Amino acid sequence: GKKLKKLGFNVFGYSLNKKNDDDIKLFHGEDLDVFLKKINVLVCTVPYTSKTNNLLSKNLFDKLNNGTYLINVSRGKVQNETDILNAIDKGVLSGAYLDVFINEPLPKNSLMWNNKKIQITPHIASITNEEAAVPQILDNYQRLIDNLSLFNKVNADNEY
Predict the structure, then answer these.
(1) Section 139-145 average pLDDT
(2) Which residue from 55, 41, 36 is spatially nearest to 1, judged by alpha carbons?
(3) Contact between 48 and 55 (Cβ < 8 Å)
(4) For all residues of the chain together, what is the average pLDDT?
(5) Are 76 and 46 in contact (CB under 8 A)?
(6) Are 96 and 88 in contact (CB under 8 A)?
(7) Of 27, 40, 64, 75, whose CB has the highest number of CB atoms within 10 Å?
(8) CA torsion angle for 93, 70, 16, 37 (degrees, to 10)?
């Protein structure tokens, strides 16, 4: 978001929990509908949880401005592929860039393959940065040996 802002884009963010950023207008909690009305490109990066299952579906699309473009680089079960196709056909979505699918690889008979308004990539939108990851792994390994609390632990209540 910060990089897009520096390129001159108006950037808005949404999270379930309140976050602060001096450069980007952030929405949270009950402000999802307000956030959705401010955007014309929706970039979805949420983790897959019981709360995000089928998030990208007709219910959410009906709250968007007509012609919003969807980018999903999160998880396949976050999106409803039939609803995406329907939203594109109705003009609610102007198109979609999808890196994830409910079934991967995307079946050959999927209608998404032949839709000119959908760009498909094979779940490669994010690549692990080894220079950042390896030190974190080594640090946590040493913390484990030293019987210290680990960093970046999964929170069972949040499901991620």
Answers:
(1) 97
(2) 41
(3) no
(4) 95
(5) no
(6) yes
(7) 75
(8) -40
**HSE-up of residue 103 (Cα within 13 Å, Cβ side):** 7
Token digits of residue 12: 């808005």
123 is catalytic: yes
Secondary structure element (H or E) that encloses residue 145, with its range = helix 130-145
Q: Say whether 75 is catalytic.
A: yes
Active-site residue among 43, 123, 125, 140?
A: 123
Q: Single out the catalytic residue among 27, 35, 64, 75.
A: 75
pLDDT mean over 126-144: 94
- Which residues make Cβ contacts (< 8 Å) with residue 131, sequence separation at least 6? none
Q: How many CA atoms lie within 13 A of 39 on its CB side?
A: 28
Taking the C-alpha atoms of residue 130 and residue 124, their distance in angstroms, rounded to an integer, is 15
Q: What is the pLDDT at residue 22?
A: 87
